[in-house]
Design a protein that fits this description.
single chain, Alpha-Beta Plaits, elongated, alpha+beta, 4-stranded antiparallel beta sheet, 8 strands
Amino acid sequence: MITVLKKPVLTEKATKIGYLRQYVFEVDPNANKLQITQAIKQMFDVEVASVRTVRTKGKVKARMTRRGYMVGKTNLKKKAYVTLKEGQTIDIVSGEGGED
């Protein structure tokens, strides 16, 4: 269950929406919303109001090397925007959750 959540996303946008009780996590690309909800409840002991997911395609990367032009691709990523119920918070840095 814990392997559903890979890591929290700590970007400027992700920290701005923290005041709306929303937190962003990178999750397994095959995970569904129910599995994400159960993993958040189990890991942080909080009540989840809703989960929105976003799949981002891998980017094409290219560079010039001694062997010639090399082209590759980054992996597909899936992010989950988790909204908690009123009065619930998650401290992303320490990994603890609960009520205010």
